[in-house]
Structures are given as C-alpha cells and as structure tokens.
Amino acid sequence: MTVTAVAQLESVFEPVIEKAGFRLVRLRMMGGSDRTLQVMAERPDGSMDVEGCTTLSHVLLDFIEAEDPIEGEYEIEVSSPGIDRPLTRLMDFARWSGHEAKIELHAPVPTPAGERKRFRATLMGTDGQDVMIRFDNMDARFPFRAVANAKLVLTDKLINEALKARDRAETTGTTPADAGADSHQGED
C-alpha cells in the first residue's frame, strides 16, 4: 500500500477513532490476499488496555459496516502501541526524548560520521520540523518527513520508567500515562 493510500485511509478512520475518545498512533494494511487493517491507538493520556481495544474495535466495525470505506475482504486488528512503541508523529520524538530508538530514513542523510540511513540512537527532541538524535557520541538532525520507520528500543530505563508511572498511578488513582506522560522529557 502506498504512502498516499495509507494517508487516505488515515483521513477516513482518524475522525472516527478520535470521536470514540482515542488517538490514532499507526494505521496500515498488511497482507496480500488475506488482508488485515492494523489500527494502533491509545487514549489521549497515552494509555490503552484490552477494554479500550474492544471498545474501539466495536466502533470501527460499526463504521466499516455502515460506510464500507475499503473495497474487498479484510480483518481488523486493534492494538495498543506497547512500551516499545512506534514513533509516528513529530511530537513523539520530543515526548520520548532521552530514550533510545531505532530509526530508518527514506534515504541516507549526512552525519558527522558520513551518510547514514539507519540509526540506533538516543532521542534528543525536536527543533521545528527536525528530529535531533545522538549516536556514537555525535549529534545529528534530519527532517521528520525523512523518517520511514522509528520505534523505541526496550531498555531497562524505559521499563523502569513505565513501572514507576504505573506505581504512581496506583497511588494517585490516575492512569499510568497520566502519572508518567511528562516524566519522559528532560530525564537522563
């Protein structure tokens, strides 16, 4: 499926997802003859549980039945982004600053170490529409639109932060994302 086709699907499904009280993280159509529409979403606070996936699945199935937005047969899969989540929006690179990520670009970009297309790097935030990273004790930046794929790396730091957020949430009665959403920025 082309980037344009995915963008068109996102424009069809995103308003339905938002109206249901969720935020689209990633949408993609996978498979050949047995296609699956994968919808990765979260609540505005960054949380997502089985109940949320079930609720959103029902909303999307009702929408698909009423509107038939995609030709042909396909399954639908609704999931949370998980702890080692994909980074799909510019704000994700700022929100997860200080954490390690695997990043693949559409084409190589110049860096202090020569041209590169793939990085395992620490996210250093954003500057305007640029993503800033640190790898091998060097800093690099590139336009967000150059990112083909990016995903957080499951590290002890990320796990510990998620556990702390969960513990704070249990103590205060908030969701884990409420307790830890802002703790990602500026921590080293």
Shape descriptor: globular
Q: What gap, in angstroms, lies between the N and C termini?
A: 39 Å
By DSSP, the count of extended strands is: 8
Number of domains: 2
The share of residues in extended strands comes to: 25-35%
Average pLDDT works out at 87
Q: Please state the CA-atom Rg, rounded to the nearest Å.
A: 18 Å
Tell me the helix content: 25-40%
Give the helix/strand class. Answer: alpha+beta
By CATH, the superfamily of the largest domain comes out as RimP-like superfamily, N-terminal
Q: If classified by CATH, what would the architecture of the largest domain be?
A: 2-Layer Sandwich
| Major sheet characteristics | 5 strands, antiparallel
- Describe the strand arrangement of the main beta sheet, using strand numbers: 7-6-5-4-8
Please provide a brief summary of the model.
This protein is α+β, with helices and mostly antiparallel strands. It is built from 5 helices and 8 strands; from the N terminus they run H-E-E-H-E-H-E-E-E-E-E-H-H.
What would your notes on this structure say?
Helices cover 34% and strands 32% of the residues. The chain has helices at 3-19, 50-67, 90-95, 156-172, 176-180, and strands spanning 23-30, 36-42, 75-79, 100-109, 116-127, 130-135, 138-143, 147-152. With 188 residues, it is an alpha+beta fold. β1 (23-30) and β2 form a beta hairpin.
